[in-house]
Structures are given as C-alpha cells and as structure tokens.
Design brief:
This protein is elongated. Helices cover 37% and strands 25% of the residues. The chain folds into two domains: 284 residues, Aminopeptidase (3-Layer(aba) Sandwich); 113 residues, Alpha-Beta Plaits (2-Layer Sandwich). A hairpin with a 7-residue loop joins strand 18 and strand 19. Strands 1, 2, 3, 6, 7, 8, 15, 16 and 17 form a nine-stranded mixed sheet that branches. A four-stranded antiparallel sheet has the order 4-5-19-18, with no helix packed on it. It is an alpha+beta fold.
Length: 408
C-alpha cells in the first residue's frame, strides 16, 4: 500500500470512525475479539441450525421468526419485523447517531422446503450454508461478542436480517429498509454475505426480465403454418447469445429459465423466458437493455414474416428485477476503515465488485460495503454448496472489529 493511501487512510478513518489499530489496545475491544474466537464453535453450530430452516425467496418467515427469537435472546432492543419481513433489533450507543446498519440476508436461492446440513470434519455441506447462513451466524456472533466484551459504542448499531436478496427478491428487503422502515436514519451500512474475506465496494447493477411470447397455437399438423411462440423465443435467444459486451467494465447476460408449450404435437400458444443482465456501469447496462428489447421485437417480426403473418405471435417483456448499480470509492472512509480493520487482524484484504444488499445504499451515496464472513467454500448457488470452517473465526473477528470502529 502506498504512502499516499496510508496517509489518507489515517486521516479519513480518524474523521469517520475510530482507527482499528488503536481499538486493539482497548480492553473491552480485546475482550470482544477474544469472545468471537472462543465462541466460533457456537457460531458454526448456529450457522448449521439456521440453514436447516428453509427460506426460499418470498418464504423467509420461518427463518425470520427464529432470527427474531435469537435477537431477543441476545438482548437487542426494539426487536421487530417490518412489513417486508426484515427482522430488526437495536444495540443502543451513547447517542442514536451515527446509526450503523449491520445486515445479513435471510433468503437462499433454493425453492426446496427440505434442507439438511451435513458435516465431515471441518467441511459443512448444504444449500445456502455459505450464502448466507454464514452471514447470519456472523451477525449473531458479533452481537454476542459485543455483549461479552461490554463494548460501549458512541453510535447505535441496528442489526437486520433482511429478506429478498436472492433471485427475483429484487433486494426488496433492503429497499424497504431505506425507503420506508428507516428512511433518512441510516448513516453507514455493512452487509455480511457469504464466505471469504474480501470487501465489496462496487455494486453490480442488474436488470431482469420475464418475456412472455403468445400465439394462436393449434395442432402441429393440422394448423401447421401459423407463427410459433416457442420458435419466436428461440430466435430471440439466438440473437441474445450473439451479443458483444464489454469486458471492462464487465457486462454480462444470461437466459436463465425458459418454459411453455402443451405437448409435442401442439403448436404452443405461450412460452416464456427469464433473462438476467448485469454491469457495474450504468451506461453499459442501459445499452445492453436497449439491445435486448430490440432483439425480442426483431425475433417476433422474423417469426411472423416466416409464416407470412399468419396467426401472429407477440412478445411482452416485463421488468421483474432492477438492482441499482453503485460504488463506494476506494478512498472513502468506510472502505479505508474496512481495509484498516483487515490489516489490523493480519488479513490480506481485497476489493471487488458484487451484487449485494449494499447496492441500494451505494446508489443513494450512503457509505456502504459488503464483507465476507470468513472461511471458504465452493458450489455457491448449487445444492452441493460447501463451507470450510478452517480459520473461519478470522471473519467473525474482523466483523466485530469493523462494527466497533464504524459505530465509534
């Protein structure tokens, strides 16, 4: 790290938060960090227990009620569930502001209602075990460590287990948090999401569409010659697959789900596809969106012309997800504080892009980052997801230290 960056780190963190290196000399902070490491077996146990409560998108209630119970058992104040389903609890500081929101998301990508976590040595296996059961466990461990260390912060910490981070949840939980539950009351934001020790300071925006193609349908032999909804969708997918996108800024597209039709010998009356497009650059995402909509309409026109406009098909693109892009600059106080906390813990940190709950405050220019919860893993967003508990306490300790630094 350059001398210039170190200078700005020292200056900025002193104005925005307490320097993590200095905090390590505070007896209460040392006690909290020791508690975090000592309690790591319990943190891992909670990680497994929480993960076995199914929480597919839009069905996070059962897991949310368990988080509410755990928040209450850890003596948070004003524990409640807002109208979106976010579970919230407050750890008051000497003053109500600054208010740091410390969050992790309740939901997983999986619709399956039955979840079982297995353990073999230091490896945990189960869908969602890292993303974001690890974040929830680290959040609970942070509250417990602060209590056991008798840490008093200047500002308040609001802990939130939020809904709707995955899939078509469209960040509805954190959007509700900023727009309705706590509008104008959040000064800083941390999300703990998944494993590892990286810091996300760039929010990758996304646009998600569900496109429904409709046509007259009919018997595959008797009505042959009318335009076909699935064939129109196929033309659109072929066009999308030929898009040329930027690698810097990284811009991506994906046709993730398709469906439709009645039987092999029926011309379909309806077909649908779901498409995800992403970029951290607002202009690049807008250009891709325009290409996508043009491709859909061109595909419909081609299918109708192919059959001489007999029994025309149509397409209705519906925007079902919009994650705003955003960025917390590398030189901002919250990022520099996070880097300083990592360095104080002996962690080789890294900054990266990601699509997380922090996108919303980043887009609103509210200081925000997402951090990993420690450990390592594989198979994220698959049924074979794993979490390696080796040295996972480092992520817990870093989260505790960062929460104290930002709330002081």
């Amino acid at each position: 790290m350059s001398k210039t960056v170190l200078f700005w780190l020292s200056l900025s963190t002193s104005c925005f938060a307490q320097d993590p290196e200095t905090l390590l000399r505070d007896p209460t902070v040392k006690a909290a960090l020791e508690a975090a490491k000592k309690n790591e077996p319990k943190t891992i146990e909670r990680q497994m227990q929480v993960c076995e409560i199914a929480a597919p998108p839009f069905h996070e209630t059962a897991r949310g009620l368990e988080l509410k119970r755990l928040f209450q058992s850890l003596s948070l104040k004003n524990v409640r569930i807002d109208k979106a389903g976010n579970v919230m609890g407050t750890r008051p500081g000497a003053a109500p502001r600054p208010n740091l929101v410390f969050s992790a998301h309740l939901d997983t990508v999986f619709p399956d209602e039955s979840v079982k976590v297995s353990r073999e040595g230091q490896i945990l296996k189960g869908p969602g075990i890292g993303d974001d059961c690890r974040g929830l466990a680290v959040m609970l461990a942070t509250i417990q460590a602060l209590d056991e260390g008798h840490v008093q912060t200047t500002g308040t910490i609001t802990f939130v287990a939020d809904v709707g981070e995955e899939g078509l949840g469209d960040l509805r939980g954190v959007k509700n948090l900023f727009y309705e539950s706590l509008p104008g009351q959040i000064d800083k934001f941390i999300s703990v999401d998944g494993n590892g020790l990286d810091i996300v300071n760039v929010g990758v925006g996304s646009m998600r569409y569900r496109v429904t193609f409709k046509g007259p349908g009919g018997h595959s032999y008797g009505a042959f010659g009318v335009a076909n909804a699935i064939q129109a969708m196929g033309r659109a997918i072929a066009k999308i697959s030929d898009f040329k996108v930027s690698s810097n800024p990284k811009t991506t597209f994906n046709v993730g789900r398709v469906g439709g039709g009645t039987s092999v010998n029926s011309i379909p009356t309806e077909a649908w596809m779901e498409v995800d497009m992403r970029s951290a650059d607002v202009a690049s995402l807008k250009t891709l969106d325009e290409q996508f909509l043009a491709a859909v309409h061109a595909a419909v026109d081609e299918e109708n012309r192919r059959w001489n406009n007999r029994g025309k098909v149509s397409a209705a693109p519906e925007l079902v997800g919009l994650r705003p892009a955003g960025e917390t600059p590398e030189g901002s106080p919250i990022v520099l504080t996070a880097l300083a906390a990592s360095r104080a813990m002996g962690i080789v940190e890294g900054l990266r892009e990601g699509s997380t709950d922090a996108n919303v405050p980043m887009n609103m220019n509210i200081p925000a980052i997402t951090i990993g919860g420690g450990g390592s893993g594989s198979g994220v967003h698959t049924l074979a997801e794993t979490f390696d508990t080796k040295d996972s306490w480092q992520g817990t300790q870093r989260a505790v230290l960062l929460a104290i630094a930002l709330a002081r």
